[in-house]
Amino acid sequence: MEILRLNQISPDQVIFLQWGFVKISATLVYTWLIMGILIALALLVGRKATSDVKISRWQNLLEVVVSSIREQIHEVSQDNPDHYTVFIGTLFLFIGLSNLLLIVPGYVAPTSSLTTTSALAVTVFLSVPIYGISKNGLSYFKEYFQPTFIFFPFHVMGEFTRTLALAIRLFGNIMSHDKVIAILLAVTPLFFPIVMHALGLLIGMVQAYIFSILAMVYIASVTQAHHHEEKVH
């Protein structure tokens, strides 16, 4: 498997099953795996969730994670985190678990595929106008013509540029770490790759945090702009 990972720059190129033009790649398989684990954990913890003082360790862990996400969202948006917790929390948990499972032998993070990171970035790209319209109505589109209509194409290019940057940043960091570990396992003693794996887990969680926070920053930039205009007027 390590040789396979060295030879393939992306899990998209690792095909497990092909039927005509339909291809089941490693990216697709491991993405389903991540979604399955998240759904299973949500059902397991949610089924036994209680409002009593005495709660299970899993519920306690979930509450800590959700509370931390809500606090970060509130700090960035200065708004009720309930509006954004589901979307931002899902991004963080999906990317975080994808990177965390790198400790499993043979596993390839779907976030090391540009296809996956691009899809995640597109969801952020679409979420910005959706949140903007839900918060400010159609007046959201006035932002694209500020300070004059001449700046409209520059605003649009800015949206596409930061979406591309989100996708490439996450892809580059995870893919490069994955390949470095594969090389180290092939040419160095075991203890050094283990240290790098531990460091990689930290980097992976940091990347999940950065991606989620940047998504919230982009959303907050359009929802807060309207409030600033109201205060000025």
Helical content stands at over 70%
Strand content: under 5%
Order of helices and strands: HEEHHHHHH
Whole-angstrom Rg? 20 Å
How do the strands line up in the largest sheet?
A: 1-2
The main sheet comes to: 2 strands, antiparallel
Q: Could you list the spans in which at least 5 consecutive residues all have pLDDT below 50? A: 1-7
- The total domain count is 1
C-alpha end-to-end distance: 62 Å
Q: Count up the helices.
A: 7
- pLDDT averaged residue by residue: 80
Number of strands: 2
Shape: globular
Structural class: mainly alpha
Key structural traits:
2 strands, 4% strand, single chain, mainly alpha, 233 residues
Q: Can you walk me through this structure?
A:
The protein is mainly alpha-helical. The chain has one domain. Helix content is 71%, strand content 4%. The protein has helices at residues 2-7, 26-47, 57-77, 85-100, 114-136, 152-187, 191-232; strands at 15-19, 22-25. Strands 1-2 form a two-stranded antiparallel ribbon. Helix 3 (57-77) crosses helix 7 (191-232), helix 5 runs antiparallel to helix 6 and helix 5 packs parallel to helix 7 (191-232).
What order do the helices and strands come in, and which of them pair?
Blueprint: H1 2-7, E1 15-19, E2 22-25, H2 26-47, H3 57-77, H4 85-100, H5 114-136, H6 152-187, H7 191-232
Antiparallel strand pairs: 1-2
Helix pairs in contact: 2-4, 3-7, 4-7, 5-6, 5-7, 6-7
